[in-house]
Design goal:
The chain is an alpha/beta fold and 276 residues long. It has ten helices and eleven strands. Helix 6 packs parallel to helix 7. It is globular and about 60 Å long. The model has no long low-confidence stretch (mean pLDDT 94). The structure holds zinc ion. The site of zinc ion has 5 residues, from loops.
Length: 276
């Protein structure tokens, strides 16, 4: 069934588990993620991000993902991750995405508050949930200087000003594959979780240790974004299965199976198994 963040994240926050967002850019990935959710009876968030649109456009993906989400036997949120332009966010909402992230994290505090508050009012009037980011989770440059960390006091003011349904925090993670071992600021996360009621989101989760996930979830993370792990699992399966003369159709089942397996590992780790 197709739902918003508000049907899955408050229960995750209360139950001290997290629901994964698994970005998907084609049918094989989508089938793998949804098969994992159904097998483990886990709620799931599926979708794409603005930077991934060259792989598959919003309209094409919506036409694949909405019917799959509706017929799934577990709650599925269709989320547009890291919306950067109002044009694409509006397109996602018009196409039937049930949740959008409006990433204004490169603006100053006042600018981020104002832009996200306006979009949140509009989205809520249409029954769509909104995630925003405070602080900035950057790309992994390997120089240890990839994030502007979230300030707990600002998080409280941001939440009160915007009413967002989920808040992405910057506590030392980075997007993409890690070039050096990340060091997470767990105490900062606990302070943010104590200051705001809204469920918190961890971006840049691919490559973190099992301990990092368990500790951040224990301290208040209710949604974890995963892309690199399942993206690489799909490519590894294609590589391992290929032999001369082999066609794409003979690799597709292995790709879907690899995405399913990688997704199930994360769901077990996040504690969302048997929560649907
Ligand atoms: Zn992100």
């Amino acid at each position: 069934m197709l739902v918003t963040l508000n049907e899955v994240l408050p229960a995750a926050k209360a139950g001290k588990y997290a629901v994964g967002l698994f970005n998907t850019v084609n049918l094989e990935m989508a089938k793998g993620v949804l098969a994992a959710a159904e097998e483990l009876r886990s709620p799931v968030i599926i979708g794409t991000a603005e930077v991934l649109l060259p792989c598959a456009g919003l309209e094409d993906l919506a036409s694949i993902l909405i019917p799959l989400a509706k017929k799934a036997s577990v709650p599925v949120v269709l989320h547009f991750d890291h919306g950067l332009t109002l044009e694409k966010i509006h397109q996602a909402m018009d196409l039937g995405f049930t949740s959008v992230m409006y990433d204004c994290s490169t603006l100053d505090f006042a600018g981020n508050c104002e832009a996200v508050a306006a979009l949140t009012r509009e989205a809520h009037s249409r029954g769509i949930s909104v995630e925003a980011e405070l602080g900035h989770v950057g790309a992994n440059a390997g120089n240890g200087d990839h994030s502007i960390y979230t300030d707990p006091e600002e998080a409280k003011r941001f939440y009160e000003a915007t009413g967002v349904d989920a808040l992405a925090v910057a506590i030392g993670t980075a997007h993409g594959a890690y070039k050096e071992k990340p060091r997470l600021d767990f105490d900062r996360l606990s302070e943010i979780a104590a200051a705001v009621d809204t469920p918190l989101v961890l971006h840049g989760g691919s490559g973190l240790s099992d301990f990092d996930f368990q500790e951040t979830i224990r301290r208040g993370i209710a949604k974890v974004n995963i892309f690199t792990d399942i993206n690489c699992a799909a490519a590894d399966a294609a590589h391992d299965g290929w032999k001369p003369g082999c066609g794409l159709t003979s690799l597709m089942p292995a790709i879907t199976a690899a995405v399913k397996e990688a997704t199930m590992r994360k769901m077990e780790l996040f504690g969302s198994k048997n929560r649907a």
